[in-house]
Amino acid sequence: MPVLKNLREFAIFPERVVSLVPSMTESLFDLGMGDHLVGVTEYCVHPEQAKLLPKVGGTKNVQISRVIELNPDLVIANQEENTEMVVETLGQRLNVWLTFPKTVRQALDDLWQLVHLFRQERAFLSLRTLETAVEYAENRLFDFQPQRVFVPIWQDQLPAGEYWWMTFNQDTYCNDVIRLLGGVNVFAERQRRYPLSADLSVGTESPSNGRDTRYPRVIKEEVITAQPEIILLPDEPYAFNENDVERMREFFQETPAVKKEQIFRIDGSLLTWHGTRLAKALTELSQYFG
Fold first, then answer.
1. In this prediction, what percent of the chain has a pLDDT beyond 70?
2. 257: part of which helix (H) or strand (E)?
3. Cα–Cα distance between 206 and 197 in angstroms, integer?
4. Domains and CATH numbers, the chain
């Protein structure tokens, strides 16, 4: 059976659901549909009830046989979080809905698809409230000048010891959350180059050949040139700590972010978990934007 990219193609009411996407697991509970979940991944830790559900492995190493044993009417997957092999294999046996929101609007549209599928009044009301919060945030953008933001999501070092950081460009959900908060991603237009040496400006670039170019790797000089006014350090997928904060204060002392003491450690899920967690992101992250 084909993998679904739109739930409007789904013809039956799903009594049993397996979620391979932590953010969608949380969203199902938040919208009052958690009782239909019969299996989740090991990373589905919100809310607490999700921890009690049968586990089907991680997001990248899903136990396919375990998912099939649970006999779900619907499997919720994500193109970025789950592997193509898992999605295609499950799609041969089960109804799989493949999500891939790159904007806040697309994430909300996915939630509306769920709401219309389950047709529960509480879900309609909850999602309408979230829509109102997003509309309010959009309207606030006219009231102040956007601030330039750098958000590294991974870091590593070259053999010689020089640090580099992975970030994201404008073709991502994270970028749109930053925009909605009143920021502008300093690397919004930066494409990832292949191989790594080319991405770090020390080698010759090769054709990307369809590979993902949304997560560029940047070096110290690029960040300084970008002149971020705010640096946000998430705790996932890389767990930045206080030592990293001190290192960045040293590396980027020529930027407004350091001069104004605007380097902040944050809950990474607020930027990466598309779904109802957006409401928490708008509340908690807005404090960093004037």
1. 100
2. helix 256-259
3. 10
4. 7-138 (3.40.50.1980), 144-288 (3.40.50.1980)
